[in-house]
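A common beginner's mistake is to predict each chain separately and then try to dock the pieces by hand. The better habit, illustrated here, is to supply every component at once so that their relative placement is modeled jointly.
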Amino acid sequence: MPGGDRSTPLLDRRLVVVTGKGGTGKTTVSAAIAVLAARLGKRVLICEMDAKGSLAAAFDTGPLPFEPLQVSENIWAMSMNTEDSLREYLRLFVHIPLVGRIGVLARTFDFVADAAPGVKEILSLGKLCYEVRERHYDMVIVDGVATGHVVAQLSAPDAIAELIKVGPVKDQTRWMQDILQDTSCTGVVLVTTPEEMPVLETTELIGRIASETQVDVAAVVANRVLPELFGRSEEAVFDALGEGAALDLLRRTAGESVDAVLDGARLAVAMRRSGAGHLEYLRQNVPPGIDFVYVPELFNRSTGRRSAELIADALGEELL
Amino acid sequence: MTAVVTGLDALLASKEMVLVCGSGGVGKTTTAAAIGLQAATELGGRVLVLTVDPARRLADALGLGAAGVANDEIRVDPARLPGKPRGELWMAMLDTKASWDDLVVRHAPDAATRDAILSNPLYRNITSRFVHSHEYIVMERLHDLHASGRYDLVIVDTPPSRHALDILDAPARMKEFFGSRLLRWLTVPARSRLFNAASKPFYQVADRILGSNFLKDVAEFFVLLQKMEAGFVRRAGETEAMLADARTTFVVVTTLEAAPATEARFLLGELTERRLPLGAVIVNRVLPESLGALAARESATRLVEEADVLARELGPVVGAEPALVSRVLAEVGARFQDFGVVASRQAERQAELTALCPLVVPVPWFEQGGDDLSTLARIGMSTWGRTQ
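With all components supplied together, the output reads:
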């Protein structure tokens, strides 16, 4: 059930932060949310945070620059880069136009930023909050924040506000906090697959986001859920087909290799069952009020625009 | 006719340090534990698996669940292990904070510096973040454990990095950080009230952004850190040399999904480029080859296309309505076709990996049971050489 009565539906939020363990398909899900929102006529900015290039692959484009690049109707994509972000920040907020020489400054800044909690985060997330504040886009999607990093990312304005008592950075943390902590505006989406480790990490992360940040979790997306093969009566028939006279008959009519086909179905049932157990655990441990969205295993290509479109279809069935 | 399947046995018998790397979510920790168990069982000797963050169930299964394990090395109770292992299996978790404290204690020139660093408010943050400290510290520990002479084989489960190269670059970056002009620049305001002409503009900008006190705190911290330069640079150099040592081997873990396989190919290319000792690729969750077999595909097609006809004959035999039987047959056939496509795609990706590494070890998809150690043992066994 999308939204419920408690919270703003995911597609109505203006800042969507997508995170998830590596390999769960978070970039494809981010791209699919963008596609879905764009289909509704929204202007969407999607930003890759980890510079891995997988967002570019999701839209079948070349490397993404810092300056948003239109990748399809209503969708602009960019790649976060601390140096460019620092340059823009200095120009917009400190009113220091820097033309040359930023290389040394940026590298020096990198060292300071590594030491100072939240500085880098505030520059990258700050850029995206700025786009939300200025209403340049209807929706801003943040893709590729690692699960281990998302709490630090979201609480960066709090950390900075604690460390730095005065100055422009301090002021900036206030409006960022306003945007991030507004549940009708900002929502986190956690992407997982029905496997043990990603599921455990997802439930732990929901707890940490609740206790260490003031940001709302909008949805959990269970990606690549294998379809249920059989109901109970069908399963009995399947078992009966795999033995005795029925199996002999099958071998005669469908060929000796039908054994391998039955083995394949058994494997599919086992995989589905293993995944269903993990999903059940997840369902029990996701607090009420958070959307729980299934995306089926599509057995199609796992990257590229085609995949984003198909997953958008699947998401649309649950979210619209 | 027997065919010999080459596994990890020769590699693990001849090496002393194994770095298990790969992208997140591919089963790296489980794989590291499984090959550790297998080596202890089959090769004997003392085998230690150093892991960063084991899943709770794995930790419990190995008896690591107790709090306060920190940096201790713990022998896994032989009674827990399946079969009769020839050797000993040891586990250690990596506590980054404790390891950093250890380094500071070792390299601080005097007690005052040591205490000043350990009590610095920025220190905790720094240790968990700067210059890939996690990646660095894990190799530092590996170096230490190997040099201790307590183990025949040390296997490390490398931390999940944002970038595959972080783990390879960490020692060099640590050296670079301590030797850099930038670090000296940063420490200027704490060393002298007279800023030099070069760094002055930076501090003016930085002060306006960050507030001057904050930056002063940072600079003071770096001054303390700089006092440990000599020790750190020497250590980082030793750790770097260890990576290229003939007794070290890299094992890359991946699955055959698109993203992890791409990352694995990239990592293999980099290892080769840097002339680091590449040992094997372990491919997890491989679907059975029979899913791609031509004859089976034909059978599956027949099940889908002739489901109604077959069901009329089969219905009475299994005692069910033909419509129901037809549905089951069509579903079985269709699902086989789906998985068949995935299996062929996987086979292609495995072939691509084989071109980049002479030893590619497939581990089949296992249904995860409640008993983790027996799953570990099955995974371990499937990485071993055998005749078929």
